[in-house]
Design brief:
42% of the residues lie in helices and 21% in strands. The chain contains 13 helices and 18 strands. Helix 5 packs across helix 12.
């Protein structure tokens, strides 16, 4: 959530930066400013009324001490009137504060000045590429054929048990999943991240705190009976560990990682791009989260990008890093780098990670603050990244490491975790 004083003091800059995200903020920003003016006016009236009430209450005590009961009774009637006036003003204040809050949570985060202009993913900027494209034979198969051939994943069973987008992993397919999770977690822990095992459901307050609500309400699975949401990413529960927390400056950065299953409705997704593991409703992911000092958050973002890049290099996958344009960014992000791996059998790029800096957008929503050395209280910056999302990594590994005769080779770094070198 944007800070109110920043909107008031930088209205034109806020509008121009929102336009980079193709968000027309003119009306809502004007409404926010107008409502805040009304809120301040009501607050001033309330303060004056309470001050009068305090004065009159003291006068009653003095009059009673002087045995001027008639005058004291008149003052009591005045206090009753002032109390009623204060109550009405409190109600007005509460109402306008709710209106103001409901407006503020609908405004996306401001993009960083380095975010390129552009409306769609086609206008994202390639920062760099790495890895080599594998040389596959002419009869190379896409992963959804390989998973059937080697009895690794059953999409049909998942469809029978639940529905489309809920695959069943089995045998070496399940072991490969577990190996990747362990590999990703061990790499994060070695770099100082604290492993967290979070709940897979969160309450509405947690969803609002990280910006999934109200923006992505329609994309989240909702447990109506209990009012809980299934998490779309471990970012939500892990970041919310520090909701309503005041840190000391020396406690920053806070580094956390978590494996979780993730749930996304992916409403409107259809066609060839959702075949196999390309787009699922339930999937596994390892997430890295950092809470950082504002002066250091963009240097930290670079280290998180390097961390993800190191994982892809270790797996031997061809990849590229994209700086997202304004129109392709998330609601809460100030700057995002996406990672894509090349699927040699499908001959297409598959997104496997997003690494983002949210600056104070989430911390303002969740009241995550730190006290600096001078005793001043500030909002921390929050960052997170997929390190990594498994489905498309599995798809790329199966496709890129397939051979025509021997089967599918397991990358060297995963063999200590799988216990086997080949899927045959």
């Amino acid at each position: 959530m944007l800070q109110l004083n920043h909107i008031q003091n930088n209205k034109e800059d806020v509008l121009s930066r929102l336009a980079v995200k193709y968000f027309d903020g003119t009306k809502i920003i004007n409404d926010i400013i107008a409502n805040d003016i009304d809120r301040k006016k009501i607050q001033s009236e309330l303060d004056n009324t309470l001050a009068k009430l305090n004065v009159v209450s003291k006068e009653i005590g003095q009059l009673m001490a002087q045995k001027k009961s008639d005058e004291a009774e008149a003052k009591k009637k005045e206090t009753a009137s002032l109390k009623e006036e204060a109550k009405l003003l409190e109600e007005k204040k509460s109402h306008i504060e709710k209106v103001l809050h409901d407006l503020l949570v609908r405004v996306p985060n401001l993009p960083h000045t380095s975010v390129p202009k552009g409306r769609t993913s086609e206008e994202n900027v390639v920062v760099r590429e790495g890895g080599e494209e594998p040389k596959l034979t002419a009869d190379a198969k896409p992963h959804w054929e390989l998973t059937t051939q080697y009895n690794l994943i059953s999409f049909e069973l998942g469809n029978k048990i639940t529905g489309a987008g809920f695959p069943v992993y089995m045998g070496k397919g399940a072991k490969l999943q577990r190996a990747l999770i362990s590999f990703f977690l061990d790499k994060a822990i070695a770099e100082g991240f604290l492993e967290i095992q979070p709940p897979l459901m969160v309450n509405a307050d947690s969803g609002y705190a990280t910006g999934q609500l109200p923006d992505k309400d329609g994309q989240m699975y909702f447990v109506n009976e209990d009012g809980y949401y299934l998490i779309p990413t471990a970012e939500v529960p892990v970041t919310n560990i520090y909701r309503d927390v005041l840190l000391k400056e020396e406690e920053l950065p806070v580094k956390m990682c978590a494996y979780s299953q993730c749930f996304r409705r992916e409403a409107g997704s259809y066609g060839k791009d959702v075949r196999g593991l390309n787009r699922l409703h339930q999937f596994d992911k390892v997430e890295i989260v950092q809470l950082e000092h504002p002066d250091k958050s963009y240097a930290t973002l670079d280290t998180m990008v390097s961390h993800v890049e190191g994982l892809l290099n270790a797996l031997g996958l061809k990849y590229r890093i994209l700086r997202l344009c304004g129109g392709d960014m998330s609601f809460a992000s100030a700057l995002t780098f996406d990672f894509e791996v090349y699927s040699a059998a499908q001959k297409k790029w598959l997104e496997v990670s997003s690494v983002s800096n949210f600056e104070t957008f989430q911390s303002n929503r969740m009241k995550l603050r730190y006290k600096d050395k001078n005793g001043k209280i500030n909002f921390a910056h929050t960052l997170n990244g997929s390190a990594l999302a498994l489905p498309r990594i599995v798809a790329a590994l199966l496709e890129n490491y397939q051979t025509s005769e021997e089967g599918i080779r397991i990358p060297d770094v995963l063999r200590p975790f799988t216990g086997f070198d080949w899927i045959k």
